[in-house]
């Protein structure tokens, strides 16, 4: 039985198989409409989510399966003090597969060690968000035609941004990737990502503060919001939240074929005027998220379409 805690849980070959399956689902949705009939997905979300939770639910329903679960810790027995280990043992009696989001780093890993069903990490604190990474990889490959030989700008909250951490872990395994890390000093990528992932894998990267400086050289810009829920005090959050705003004027500095991605939700960091730019791919990214989660569910349940 396989779980998904990190993008590194799959080899590059296994990832390609999942991405190929997602592309086939996109092209032939009716072929998979009954693949998970009689199967149940449990969504255990101890932290608020719109896209991730609903896309998992849509994915399972698109496969003909059913969904059960909770959308906050307050609406679960966690509010009574039940441990993650006990919750997953109980849920294993009800469902065939589980997607878990938790504010504490490592909580889905604890669940996987006690579970008798596959567990998918749907985001744990500021640590990892592997299904968003699968979504990002599918979006990049589908729209750019490749996952190598790209200059990728990661902008915003690189300190707490689990989507950024997961994406870096995944992309270092592809050739010709160059990173431009765009953030204020307070939100720089953590030392363990810089030293243990980028430098250990001999990746080419640079760190800059100004978005305008980086834009002309990028093939892809990955914007992130500054996450108020990760800050220890309101004053620091208010000071940092509007540090970067991508607007129409800044987009004029970018290549004609640069893609703009964002894991969403956005706040102010991408102006709505950018939405109509053909390079804005973040809503397409949302749709790819459904396809890739369908492919992941099929893979972990070892179900063929």
Automatic annotation (TrEMBL):
Chain residues that bind L-aspartate: 80, 162, 225
Pathway assigned to this chain's UniProt record: Pyrimidine metabolism; UMP biosynthesis via de novo pathway; (S)-dihydroorotate from bicarbonate: step 2/3
Binding site for carbamoyl phosphate: 51-52, 101, 129, 132, 264-265
InterPro entries from the UniProt entry: Asp/Orn_carbamoyltranf_P-bd (IPR006132), Asp/Orn_carbamoylTrfase (IPR006130), Asp/Orn_carbamoylTrfase_sf (IPR036901), Asp_carbamoyltransf (IPR002082), Asp_carbamoyltransf_Asp/Orn-bd (IPR006131)
Aspartate/ornithine carbamoyltransferase Asp/Orn-binding domain ranges (all copies): 149-299
Catalytic activity from the UniProt record: carbamoyl phosphate + L-aspartate = N-carbamoyl-L-aspartate + phosphate + H(+)
Domain Aspartate/ornithine carbamoyltransferase carbamoyl-P binding: start-end pairs: 2-141
Enzyme Commission number: 2.1.3.2
Example GO biological process: 'de novo' UMP biosynthetic process
Keywords annotated in UniProt: Pyrimidine biosynthesis, Transferase
Keyword Ribonucleoprotein: no
Gene3D superfamilies: Aspartate/ornithine carbamoyltransferase
A Pfam short name: OTCace
GO MF, any single term: aspartate carbamoyltransferase activity
Function: Catalyzes the condensation of carbamoyl phosphate and aspartate to form carbamoyl aspartate and inorganic phosphate, the committed step in the de novo pyrimidine nucleotide biosynthesis pathway.
Subunit structure: Heterododecamer (2C3:3R2) of six catalytic PyrB chains organized as two trimers (C3), and six regulatory PyrI chains organized as three dimers (R2).
Similarity comment: family membership: Belongs to the aspartate/ornithine carbamoyltransferase superfamily. ATCase family.
Protein name: Aspartate carbamoyltransferase
Source organism per UniProt: Robinsoniella peoriensis
Organism classification: Bacteria, Bacillati, Bacillota, Clostridia, Lachnospirales
Gene designation per UniProt: pyrB
